[in-house]
Amino acid sequence: MEITLPFTYDFDRTLERLSLDPLHAIDLSEKAVRLPMPEGNIVKVRATGSTYQPSFEITGAKPDQLEEIKHIFHFDRSLEPVYEHYQKTNLAHLFHEHQGTPLVREFSLYGSLMKSIIHQQLNLSFAHTLTSRFVQNFGEEKEGVWFYPNAEKIAKLEPADLRELQFSTRKAEYVIGLSKAIAAGTLRLDEMENRTDEEITSELIAYRGIGLWTAQSFLMFGLGRPNLFPLADIGLQNALKIEWQRSEKPKKEEIMAHLPDWEPYLSYAALYLWRSIE
Asked: What's the predicted TM-score (pTM) here?
């Protein structure tokens, strides 16, 4: 399938960010990514155009997967309203620099939640190492593409199994406990698409191991929600410290004062601020 987008879309920057995760099958020279689909097949998305005339070749997709792929990569809605909105804010130059960079969803809802749990309170490098160990020990590799394990498999583990990979006991308990809830059908990630951010957050934080940061991370990268700004994120605080040329990180209250100007696209402010320091 060939698709053309009628708006600016920077796939080079998209692949750069995706390549930070060693589990992603990225080919920068070919401008392509291969992604694992829940149905077990592998889909390849390759850029055939440019940032200002974007077009893509999609291969390996089943007919009923095309809309989901468009949703994952933000092909189905223009980025121009986001860019235009931020030209009236104090982040205008940041959005000019990163114009056309989309909020790309994780390829698996279960994987997104597990990744959010694993990344809690870790530096990015070790967080990716730990996530890779988790997937490579319990997931599956097909043609060089890694698939996250299913919840049923992780639900059968003991904390000691994850402790061997350098998980803390508490984090191992969180991952297994959530996997048990998903495997039992108590927590239905596949039914969250049509629910509000507030409803989803309320349900998630009722589970041991999920706080507001983890819930917001899942909403942003699992479900692609556009209007979230994790105030407690150290990376965002450091990015704003640089952006605002401060000697210290800004306080929560100071950041909150800017949020009304940035809404309803807070997730893009967060994404572009992260990109500015990655």
From this structure: 0.93
